[in-house]
Amino acid sequence: PPSAAATLIFIVGLLGAFVFTPVMGLVADRTRTRWGKFRPWLLWTAIPFGALSLLAFSTPDLGAHGKIVYALTTYTLLVFVYVANNLPYSALSGVLTGSMAERNSLSSYRFVAVMVAQFVIQVLLLPLVLILGDGDKARGFERTMALFAIVGTLFFLITFFTTKERIVP
């Protein structure tokens, strides 16, 4: 039901903002690996993020109560893994270069790319749902999210393998 969905999104959003984000900030700041401090999180979260994206947009036949529990579980895990991926990714530009001009440039490219990706997804989402679902919107969302999850996972892995942390904080 819409009221359960709204409550779920609100509660998990608060949990993400006030629990997951500060905890992940502490964890990321204390991470020390051969790959650096922030970059490993792209590798460690790529596949879980893709899998949870798919699971969160799947609709198992569990009955009304079961679907709410399923949605709460998958969405909470998705937000947790999103924070574990996005927070270190956002901090990555600070360890790629010591130049403030280059950091600003990287951030600008990142924000423009995000806006372009959001536009593309908004334009493609519903047509893909209809095409891939053959008229069944639930199946269409599952298949569309499978496509997005695969592409997203590949891009996280590409980013991990093609960047190098050069600045040690």
Report what the structure shows.
With 169 residues, the chain is mainly α. It contains 6 helices and no strands. The longest helix has 34 residues, at 100-133. The termini are far apart. The model has no long low-confidence stretch (mean pLDDT 95).
Radius of gyration: 18 Å
Reported for the largest beta sheet, the result is:
none
Which band does the percent of strand residues land in?
A: under 5%
> Can you give the helix content as a percent range?
over 70%
SS-based structural class?
mainly alpha
Low-confidence stretches: none
Number of strands: 0
Summarize the structure.
Helices cover 82% and strands 0% of the residues. It has 169 residues and is mostly helical.
Map the helices and strands.
Layout: H1 2-29, H2 39-56, H3 63-91, H4 93-96, H5 100-133, H6 137-162
Helix pairs in contact: 1-3, 2-3, 2-6, 5-6
Question: Which characteristics define this entry?
Answer:
globular; 169 residues
